Amino acid sequence: MTLAVLIDGAAPRDLASGVAVNERGLHYGDGVFETALLANGRVRFLEQHLERLNEGCERLGIPVPDRATLLGEIERITKPLRSGVLKIIVTRGVGRGYRPPANAQPTRMVVMYAAPATIKAQIAVQWCETRLGRNPRLAGVKHLNRLEQVLAQAELRDAGVDEGLMLDTEGELVCATSGNVFVVREGLLITPDLRFCGVRGVMRRQVLCAAVQLGIATREEPLWPHDLNAASEAFVTNAVRGVQSIIALDALHWGEAPVAAALRKALGL
Amino acid sequence: MTLAVLIDGAAPRDLASGVAVNERGLHYGDGVFETALLANGRVRFLEQHLERLNEGCERLGIPVPDRATLLGEIERITKPLRSGVLKIIVTRGVGRGYRPPANAQPTRMVVMYAAPATIKAQIAVQWCETRLGRNPRLAGVKHLNRLEQVLAQAELRDAGVDEGLMLDTEGELVCATSGNVFVVREGLLITPDLRFCGVRGVMRRQVLCAAVQLGIATREEPLWPHDLNAASEAFVTNAVRGVQSIIALDALHWGEAPVAAALRKALGL
Q1: pTM of the entire structure?
Q2: Which CA distances in Å does A256 have to A40, A123, A161, B150?
Q3: I need a labelling partner for B66 at 20 to 30 A (CA). Which of A217, B219, B241, B260 fits?
Q4: Which SS3 state, helix, strand or coil, does residue B111 take?
Q5: What is the C-alpha to C-alpha distance for residues B182 and B193, in angstroms, rounded to an integer?
Q6: Pairing relationship of beta strands A180-185 and A188-191 according to DSSP bridges
Q7: Pick among A2, A5, A6, A17 to test the B interface (most B CBs inside 10 A)
Q8: DSSP character string of A92-115
Q9: Contacts of B94 in chain A (CB under 8 A)
C-alpha cells in the first residue's frame, strides 16, 4: 500500500498521476533508486542509502540531488509514520531522445509504502532460468533497468518458494532477485564480487563490515552454483528484509545458521 | 516538442503529470515501445510496428493491448496532424515489487512529437565506448531498459558526429545507438544477427525484405568492427530516419552508396 508521495517536494493530486509524460525514468529507466526500512520512526542505514544513491548518480552522470532538500523531503514524508518502506527515485528528469540533456533537471521521488506484514528469517529459494546480462559499465548500480529481475520473479510460482537465485549469462552466481547472496565455507564468508552485474546492496556492505567486526574472514570473489553444495550456510541480504537464511534450495537443505544469526545480532536486525 | 498525449485513452491535464506514481514502466522499465513516423497523415509501417509491439509484449508476458482500442487511439491522436513522430508505450501497468501482478492491467501511452526538422541521408559516426550487455532473454525486444543507449549517446559530443556504433561486451558489432547497422561486402548485404542483444528494428526488416525483392543477397550473422574496414558501404536504419548512409567513421570514408540508394528508392523513403 502506498502511504505518501512527494515528487520534487510536492504531493501529487492522486496516485494515478503526478509523474511527467516525458519522464526519462519511464522512457529509458534513466535513473537510480533506493529502498530503505523505516522502523521505530527512523530510516535504517539512511546515510549509507544516500551515499549509494549519490554514487549511482555519478556513475550515470546524473546531477546528485541536493542533500538538504532530499533529507527535508525524507523527514517530511516519514515524520507521521513509525514504520514502512521508503523508496527514493532520482532520474535524469524529463527529456526526449536517448541523449542526456545538457542541463538535466533531475526528478526526485520519495514514496512511502506500508511495511511488509512479516519478514521471514528463514527462506526457501529456487534457481531462476532468467539470467543477468554482463555489463561492467552498469555493474553495482541500483538503476531503473530492472526487467531481468521482473522476469526472474515471474518464475517464482511455487507458494513454498520465497526467493530466486540468479546466475549471469556465463553461469556465475550473482544475487537473489531482490537481494545479495552470501555463502559460508569453512568459516569463510563469501559473496559474489559483482564485477559484471548485480547491485552493491546497502545490507551487503553492512554485513561485510559486521563480519569484520566479528572476526569472520570475508571474501568478494566469483561464485558458481556448485558453491552452494559446499556451503555450511547461505543467506540473502536486503535492506528491508535484513539477513534471511536459506534453508532449502531444490534438494539442498540447511539447518543451523550460526553466522547469519551472529550477523543479525551484530546489526541489530 | 510534444504535440499530444493519450494515456489509456485520456489526455492528461498537462505534460507535468498523467503517469501513475507506481507505474512499472518507471520503476522497472517493465514495458515495450514503438517509434514510428507520421508522414502525409499516415503512420509509416504501422502494421509492422503493431506486430513487433505485440511480439515484445508476448516475450515479456505482458497482455497484448486490444488492437481496436489502440488503433482508435492512434487514429484520434494522428488525425489532426500531417507529420510527426508517434511513440507508443505499453507497460505492465501499476504495481509494487518486481513480481508481475497476477492480473496485470497494462498501461497504453500514445504520444505525438514534432517531426525532426531535417533527416540526413548521409551521416558521420563514431565508435562508442559504452557496450551492450548480452542477454538472449531480452535480445531483439524494444523494451524500456535503455540505459546503455543513453550512456552511449552521452558520448556523442563532437558536433560533426551524428550517430555512434555499439559493440557488445564481447566486441561484436550490434547496432547504432538508435538504429540497426548494415554493411555491404562483395555485393552481399549483412546485418548483425542480434542473437545476444540489440533491437529487431522495423526498418531493419523492411530493408531485408526490400533487398530480397531487389535481388540483393542478405545475411544476418555476427559482425565485428573490422567488418567495417572491408565494407564497400555501410548504413544505419531507423523507423523515423529511414536509411542513412555512413560516410565517415574515424579514418574510414565512403562515397557512393548504390545499395542504400536502391533500398531507399524501393522503400519510398
Answers
A1: 0.97
A2: 30, 13, 19, 47
A3: B241
A4: strand
A5: 11
A6: antiparallel
A7: A17
A8: --B-SSSSPPTT---EEEEEEEPP
A9: 15
Query: Which triple of cell numbers denotes residue A217?
Result: 574472514
Residue of B231, B102, B232, B228 lying closest to B173 (CA atoms): B228
C-alpha cell of B140?
A: 531483439
Query: Which run of H or E residues covers position B84?
Result: strand B84-91
CB B105 within 8 A of CB B116: no
Cβ pair A239, A202 in contact under 8 A: yes
Q: Tell me the pLDDT tens digit for each residue of B34-71.
A: 999 999 999 999 999 999 999 999 999 999 999 999 99
Per-residue pLDDT tens for B141-174?
A: 999 999 999 999 999 999 999 999 999 999 999 9
Residue B127 CA, chain-centre distance (Å), reads 19
Give the residue from B22, B32, B147 with the most A CB atoms within 10 Å of its CB, the best one to mutate: B147
Interchain contact, B21 vs A30, CB within 8 Å: no
Alpha-carbon distance of A163 to A125, in angstroms, equals: 5
Residues 206-245 of A with CB under 8 A from B: none
Q: Do B61 and A131 touch (CB under 8 A)?
A: no
A7 contact residues in B (CB cutoff 8 A): 21
Residue type at position B115: A
Q: Give the cell for residue B212.
A: 530480397
